[in-house]
Each structure stands twice: as structure tokens, then as C-alpha cells.
Task: structure prediction
Amino acid sequence: MTINCSGKLISLEQPKIMGILNVTPDSFFDGGKYKDESSILQQVEKMLNEGATFIDVGAYSSRPGALKVDETTELKRIEPIVCLILKKFPETILSIDTFRSNVAKACIENGAAIINDITAGLQDDKMLSTVAQLNVPYIMMHMRGTPQNMQQQTSYDDILKEVLFYFSERLSVAKALGIKDIIIDPGFGFAKNLEQNYELLNKMELMGFTDQPLLAGISRKSMIYKTLGTSAEQALNGTTALHMVCLQKGAKILRVHDVKEAFECVKLYEQLNA
Result:
């Protein structure tokens, strides 16, 4: 339960918070909020002060139906942001939300520490070997298809069985290539309908069979606001409620938009289990 982030050993025995920084114009909740250096640095500082261990930077929106972004545009968006953050806050542990090996390599060479891949290496056949060569922690997520078509790929005979099989296969490939620190993400909202998201959440502890730390990314997602009949903007309370469930089911990292509330949730969970 320890991962090596650029020489810093981070224990996941106590759950950690990963703050989300989307530098995209079209992310489902915070798209377009962080357009300039000042707003980006203010948000990073806020998340670090509120208890984030990691900051996850993404320049390609993966919301359902999102527009495709070419590799050049993604790099042009994200590389200066990595440099900007690490110049101002050099101790920050940056995670890079990308499925492209060239983007991953460029960001790690500029000081980022973790790769967060929504496709688990299935969209870029060089990703896993690149991560192995870079010797950085790797977050692999379950999904089918692409953000553009994933919501048409929600037919499963047994979703838990199929997700577990997916991870067993992906882990086997990643470990054979020499990737040491691997975190798995069930991929809530990715090629899953409302009922399937809750079935996976309800059985998430069974993913512990992999012996890899679990990351839960449910922050303000439609599985919350559609159930409550609200919106992403009104989904903070529901997010916090399900964060506690994720922690009880074994999540070691919560990937969130709202760090303060998630950090408080972790503190209460730890007190409950003291």
C-alpha cells in the first residue's frame, strides 16, 4: 500500500485525496473554469491547503460524448500547466490524466509523478511499455470504447465478473512489462448505466482480490445527480455520502472536485475505524 512518486514514498494505508484540475473547455462540471495562470494556481493552492495529496491534471475531457482532441492540442494544453504548477509548488505530486504515451512521457519528463489512464493502455499500445520505462505509478481504469461512444456499450452479462476479468488481464500485461505501482479504478460512469454503477459500488470491496489499491472517482457524476433529480452543481452532498461508502468498501484514493469535504469524510472514516 505504498507507491513511489518521484522518490517520495506515499503510504495508502490511510486513504488519500486526489484533487481534480481540468484544463479543458468542456469537462462536465468545471470545464472552462481554469483558463489562466492565476486561476489555475489559486485552485491548486486551495486543493493542497485543503488536504489533497495528489493533483490530477487533465487536458482531454472524458465526459460522455466529449469532442475528440488531437495529441498536439492535448500536449499544448497540458505541458505548460505542469511546468507552471511545479515552478510555483515544486513539492506537488502531479498525476496526469491521459491515455496517450507521448503526453505521459512529456509530462513525466517535466516533473509529473503519476499516469492516470482511463483506457488501461487499450487506446495506445505504447502506453504500458512507456509507463514501465518511466518507472512511475499507473492508474488503470475500466471502460469500454471511447468517451465518444462508451454510453452505447453498457450491455453486460455480469458486470462485476467482466470488470474483474478486465483487470486481471490488464494487470497481467502491465506487471509482465515491469510496472510496479498500479492502482485500479472501477470507472464509474464509463460504459455503465445508473444501475450498473450502483451494483459496482455495492460490490467494490470484491475488487480487493487484485491486491492493488482502489481509486474511486464518483465526484459530482450523473449516478449521483440523476438519482437525486438535481445537477452536477448540486451534487456535493450526494458525493460526500457516496465517498463514505467508497471508503467503507476499500477505496484508498478519492478523486474529487471538492477537496475539503472529501478530506473531512476521510477524517470521520478514520475516527470510525480508530
Summary: The chain has nine helices and ten strands. The chain has a mean pLDDT of 92.
